[in-house]
């Protein structure tokens, strides 16, 4: 036992001081989230619903993976930690959607899903202060539901850890070959254009009779051309696409649908935020690429993405309710997606 404790201590110090800081970030963030959850439960009587419990399990898994990575440094464990938080973000997104009645309840986490509960039983449950809550009765902190806070927390944690990991990789690969950079750029751009198409398809589904539908269709068509270009590059350069494409599809369509439901201005605010991040990303790539066909094409795509942003602003994107918060939230999510697509 003593030998195991000494091994853990030595490896912990090695990770914190010399090696990757990623396990430390995941361990501390998981511990902080769980402590906060249990403080709210036992001191403020904010009992968890089913989805809250699933969200806690994600933190337990990430914490255990972090400890395992401290004992034995392994890239697979690091990727698993990122995936666990990404799964947690998907669960939280679904949780928030149930609270806002945007999604169908398939887990029985809302009162409406409990078809075998009588009106009298439902009334008694609602009057019982110790009754385990459903997604119909979320708890709020500072006017924001706990599920929403958890989603924001996970996205920020993914963004910070992704930035740290990308920074560490850049430091460890200062002479990183041009071929590797090209492969990473193509993989990320392919994923980004795919995500943009999914967002526009979600918006198009909700706003098909709106006055801005023609603009959405035109921008989606341009994104499809960009995607087809990078899809050909994927085949030509034999680049491995990110394994997260199915996740980006679900999140992209959901984001498009959710912002479209909030209204035309919110949909345009989403477009402006996404296209601005993509434009900055392409600008950074152009500055690192050598002169050639790929550099010229990405530069052209960047101009078109910024044109989409300008169109969104012309359609009152900045007048959307809570524009600054919504824009910052979407930009942070996009940057986290870029980092994750580089890694996985």
How is this structure best described in words?
The structure is a single chain. The protein has 344 residues and is an all-alpha fold. 76% of the residues lie in helices and 1% in strands. Strands 1-2 form a two-stranded antiparallel ribbon. The longest helix is centred in the middle third of the chain and has 29 residues, at 178-206. It is globular, with a radius of gyration of 22 Å. The two termini are 36 Å apart.
Topology at a glance:
Layout: H1 2-17, H2 22-44, H3 50-71, H4 75-99, H5 119-127, E1 140-141, E2 144-145, H6 146-172, H7 178-206, H8 213-237, H9 245-261, H10 264-288, H11 293-314, H12 323-343
Antiparallel strand pairs: 1-2
Helix pairs in contact: 2-3, 2-6, 3-4, 4-6, 6-12, 7-8, 7-9, 7-10, 7-12, 8-11, 9-10, 10-11, 10-12
Question: Can you tag this structure with a few keywords?
Answer:
344 residues, mainly alpha, Bromodomain-like, Ferritin, 2 domains, 12 helices, 2 strands
Which blocks of ≥5 consecutive residues have pLDDT under 50?
A: 12-18, 112-117
Q: What is the helix content?
A: over 70%
Mean pLDDT: 82
Oligomer: single chain
Q: How far from one another are the termini?
A: 36 Å
Order of helices and strands: HHHHHEEHHHHHHH
Strand order of the largest sheet: 1-2
Give the overall form: globular
Biggest sheet features: 2 strands, antiparallel
